[in-house]
Amino acid sequence: MPTSGKPRQRRWHGRGAAVVALAVALLTSACGGGSGGATGADASPPSASERAVAAQKQLAKNSLVPLQGEPPESELPVTVDSSDGREVTVEDASRILPLNGGVAEIVFTLGLGDRVVGRDITATFEEAKDLPLVTKAHDVSAESVLSLRPTVVLADTDTGPSEAIDQIRDAGVPVVVLDPATELANVSTRTTRIAEALGVPEAGKALNSRIDKDLAAARAAVPEGSRPKVAFLYMRGSAAVYLMGGKGSGADSLIDAAGAVDAGVESGLDKPFTPLTSEALIKAQPDVILMMSKGLESVGGIDGLLDVPGIRETPAGQTRRVVTLEDGVLLSFGPRTPLVIDILVDRVHQA
């Protein structure tokens, strides 16, 4: 589970990259020019259900939509602040190795996917699937990383073990460490820092503009007067892990953006995750339960979930209202997050 962290201030030196043309909305690409992408003075904006259908189609492809136009050219060297307290100078971004799936999504969406030489186990999207894997379980293999001759490595403060990161750095490879993304506000910060480290700050601005536009359109589809209570449950049945999300879980910011109320936060859970009890569930009284798809599978689907003490006593349990999203997407906080909000807006507000 992610840990919270405040993004550090960063700086870069060198000339800005050539201006990248601002991309069209991601939803339009997902719709393929269908009803969701209608334009013109008399065209109505797509409904929540239309946006959700388009978002589901795009997520089903498990593919990314890069910025339009030619890939940006890096203008280097740049010196940036790393979240491990170091200043890191990047002189060459021709062989990029992101050690985090969310970071990799941003790199690919910036248009730099052809420079990526390897992947972390959490980079599960289609464009990355054939890249060499440099992790064993969730631990980074320094030997595997160095064998790919990266010119810059992007990690986050959760990446480890620390000995492997030190070994990569000691071999002369610049390692830029980022704070984990744990809420919606982190998306733009993370995109900016990655773009600056790779010498393409204008592409970062273009991507942030696109994400902001798509998020605003998703929020505009929230039905007026609807404020359902949504509980985020993190479950791994095989490991007997049953947790409820509270303040700082990451899901709380998504639920809020979708125009709903985080049931855990409202019931007083002031930690990101708290062991699940029937008393806590009954107190929270969620109208909707939000889960990762593999988490629901691990407890035997909706029927198995209803056997968890307290679930049947909630409005969500009584109406079987459970919303799931793929594990690698729900809390990724990256370029595909607007699609997550589109789906949540539609599903959590359904009668």
From TrEMBL:
Q: List where this protein forms a coiled coil.
A: none
By its UniProt entry, which Gene3D superfamilies does this protein fall under? Nitrogenase molybdenum iron protein domain
- Alphabetical list of PROSITE patterns matching this protein: FE_B12_PBP (PS50983), PROKAR_LIPOPROTEIN (PS51257)
Matching entries from Pfam families are given as: Peripla_BP_2
Per UniProt, residues of the Fe/B12 periplasmic-binding domain are: 95-351
Alphabetical UniProt keywords: Signal
Q: Which InterPro entries match?
A: ABC_Transporter_SBP, ABC_transptr_periplasmic_BD
* Signal peptide start and end residues: 1-32
**Looking at the keywords, is RNA-binding present?**
no
Query: Is Signal tagged as a keyword?
Result: yes
SUPFAM superfamilies noted in UniProt: Helical backbone' metal receptor (SSF53807)
Superkingdom is Bacteria
**PANTHER family referenced in this protein's UniProt entry, alphabetically:** HEMIN-BINDING PERIPLASMIC PROTEIN HMUT, VITAMIN B12-BINDING PROTEIN
Q: Which family does it belong to?
A: Belongs to the bacterial solute-binding protein 8 family.
The identity of this protein, by name, is ABC transporter substrate-binding protein
Organism for this UniProt entry: Streptomyces spinoverrucosus
Q: What is the lineage of its organism?
A: Bacteria, Bacillati, Actinomycetota, Actinomycetes, Kitasatosporales
